[in-house]
User: Which sequence fits this backbone?
């Protein structure tokens, strides 16, 4: 009976949403968006927006990626596709544009989704879940010019996907001070706050997405989504991010570093103490990124020749590492090509290594049942970032196969 009532409730809700979609009511107030544009050109040719503008910055790019060397055949399907296609990148402007945080969706003044700049929730633009919403939430309006950075609190999204948009805007002819507001999550870590200060992003300038889910701006600026960035974007982002660093000559680490997730509640190496005991004999130093300033993190990874660590935000700093540096990522072997995170996000450090000219190696450890937790009580996806147990003997053999010998500090 309860299931039947829930089914009837959903059917009634779906009928209401479909009715609202066809009524002359904007989703600014009530109901779902009225449709979508497949491209910016379609919007510019169709909508009544004389201010709509595109400023191209980077050209499209196609690149063949290499699977990790000496990878077992059973893991080869994980490293797909080998043909990587990256879109051209540019800066765009629309009048009275909106952004919905939870759906990561850009909406136009005529109440349609710009699908090529918004996250998909299924097979295509039709599956965006805003089309199933009765209300999109209270609308917060800001005047003047706003630049959307998006990103998340996660360090990877902040450093690789969010900050380079400032460079893109700069190449399109806009300085950070040309914008009245910056739409982003408020930085919570000191290293992120420092970077924003150096870039000229004051607290007063930020429209905090952690507090506002639905926002509209008089002049709304945004860039091509960075989800499928390529080599040119990565190399450009690296140079831009290195330029933010003030250097840390007094801070010196060795050329072999192990990135620990001991402060994290998930995605940890459960037998890390045993593993690191062996790595220390090979000259590796343990690095806990949370303990380092931004400049110290840059210096640490710039000097590295070998980096070992479990999949996680700390490995983002490989963007500062020199070409030829070797990265050994300890990964979860569970894989489902239809699961968006694994098919896209699970391979971020493999692709980034390919773009930057790093040597990438993947070691697959066993997920275990040790307790996981997430900051703020968030739900941890056990399939995504479970704690892992490393077979230390097998790992030492794996390193030997790739040029490192157990019990020796020699290359």
Assistant:
């Amino acid at each position: 009976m309860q299931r039947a009532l829930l089914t009837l409730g959903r059917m009634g809700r779906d009928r209401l949403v479909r009715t609202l979609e066809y009524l002359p009511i904007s989703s600014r107030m009530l109901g779902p968006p009225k449709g979508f544009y497949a491209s910016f050109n379609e919007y510019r040719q169709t909508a009544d927006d004389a201010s709509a503008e595109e400023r191209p910055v980077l050209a499209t790019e196609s690149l063949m990626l290499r699977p990790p060397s000496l990878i077992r055949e059973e893991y080869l399907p994980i490293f797909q596709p080998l043909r990587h296609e990256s879109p051209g990148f540019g800066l765009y402007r629309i009048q009275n544009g909106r952004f919905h945080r939870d759906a990561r969706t850009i909406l136009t003044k005529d109440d349609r989704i710009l699908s090529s700049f918004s996250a998909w929730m299924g097979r295509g633009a039709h599956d965006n879940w805003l089309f199933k919403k009765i209300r999109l939430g209270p609308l917060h309006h800001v005047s003047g010019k706003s630049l959307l950075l998006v990103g998340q609190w996660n360090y990877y999204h902040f450093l690789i996907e969010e900050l380079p948009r400032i460079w893109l805007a700069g190449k399109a002819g806009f300085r950070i001070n040309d914008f009245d507001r910056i739409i982003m999550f408020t930085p919570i870590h000191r290293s992120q706050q420092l970077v924003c200060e150096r870039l000229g992003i004051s607290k007063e300038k930020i429209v905090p997405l952690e507090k506002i889910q639905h926002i509209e701006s008089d002049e709304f600026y945004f860039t091509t989504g960075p989800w499928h960035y390529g080599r040119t974007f990565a190399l450009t982002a690296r140079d831009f991010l290195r330029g933010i660093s003030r250097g840390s000559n007094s801070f010196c680490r060795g050329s072999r570093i192990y990135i620990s997730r001991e402060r994290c509640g998930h995605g940890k190496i459960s037998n890390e103490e045993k593993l690191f005991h062996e790595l220390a004999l090979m000259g590796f130093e343990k690095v806990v990124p949370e303990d380092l300033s931004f400049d110290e993190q840059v210096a640490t990874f710039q000097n590295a020749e070998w980096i070992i660590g479990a999949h996680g935000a700390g490995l983002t700093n490989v963007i500062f590492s020199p070409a030829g540096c070797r990265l050994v990522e300890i990964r979860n072997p569970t894989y489902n090509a239809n699961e968006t995170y694994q098919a896209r996000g699970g391979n971020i450090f493999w692709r980034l290594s390919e773009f930057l000219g790093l040597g990438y190696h993947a070691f697959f450890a066993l997920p275990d049942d040790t307790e996981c937790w997430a900051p703020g009580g968030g739900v941890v996806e056990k399939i995504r970032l479970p704690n892992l147990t490393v077979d230390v003997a097998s790992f030492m053999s794996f390193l030997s196969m790739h040029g490192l010998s157990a019990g020796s500090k020699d290359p």
